[in-house]
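Quick one, probably user error.
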């Protein structure tokens, strides 16, 4: 975050965990923190600056946190005016892309995909390409967490699209990611532009999309670094701090 006469202020955060008594809900999005569902990875951002040519606009195109570095360095190098001849500094082979034209409303987003994650230890991965999101392996807890004034039956009924009373041949909103006694499908596909609540699994209806995205996942896997996950510390549980996320280790 930055402030001042030329500052851009951004507020964003991913979904909260599916746990009780911590004062959050991701509804109507599915899942939460530590999962690949929209409730765990989709975030809302707010930008305010006199540098922006227009205000009061909403942009729902793809934008990843890694895009901030090339976007801000482009502004610092090339300024805020449209300048096709200026490409900004060479940052090497990075994941982010310059999004200033999209932020300024000059052109669509420069991003068409992003890798949600690859976890070799857990054996899962997820990728977003255009409107599609593909899961390979278990994507994490896929429950909906209704607001406190809604019960689970009411909240899942609300997720059923009014123009399509049967959300899917395979999945209904009342089902969780895994049916008791059965494992979730290894490959799952969702159109998260038309179905952001991920109620309709459509991999069987779009085999070519699945094939293309699996090939793209293999490319990312070939470049991935093995994770060095550390175990969780029970002392960090928010239940130890009246539901608040807070530092729990003594500092020097």
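Nope, works fine. Designed sequence:
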């Amino acid at each position: 975050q930055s402030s001042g006469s030329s500052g851009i202020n951004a507020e964003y955060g991913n979904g909260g965990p599916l746990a009780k008594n911590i004062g959050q809900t991701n509804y109507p999005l599915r899942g939460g923190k530590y999962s690949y569902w929209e409730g765990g990875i989709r975030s809302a951002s707010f930008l305010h600056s006199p540098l922006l040519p227009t205000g009061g606009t909403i942009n729902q195109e793809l934008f990843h946190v890694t895009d901030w570095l090339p976007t801000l360095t482009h502004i610092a190098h090339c300024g805020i005016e449209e300048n096709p001849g200026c490409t900004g500094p060479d940052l090497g082979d990075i994941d982010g892309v310059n999004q200033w034209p999209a932020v300024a409303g000059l052109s669509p987003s420069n991003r068409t995909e992003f890798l949600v994650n690859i976890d070799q230890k857990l054996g899962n991965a997820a990728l977003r390409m255009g409107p599609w999101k593909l899961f390979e392996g278990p994507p994490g807890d896929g429950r909906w967490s209704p607001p406190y004034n809604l019960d689970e039956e009411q909240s899942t009924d609300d997720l059923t699209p009014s123009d399509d009373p049967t959300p899917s041949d395979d999945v209904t909103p009342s089902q969780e990611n895994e049916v008791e006694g059965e494992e979730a499908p290894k490959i799952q596909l969702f159109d998260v532009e038309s179905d952001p609540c991920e109620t309709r699994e459509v991999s069987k209806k779009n085999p070519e999309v699945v094939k293309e995205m699996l090939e793209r996942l293999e490319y990312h896997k070939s470049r991935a670094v093995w994770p060095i996950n550390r175990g969780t510390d029970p002392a960090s549980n928010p239940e130890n701090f009246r539901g608040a996320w807070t530092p729990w280790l003594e500092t020097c």
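Confidence is low (pLDDT under 50) at residues 160-181.
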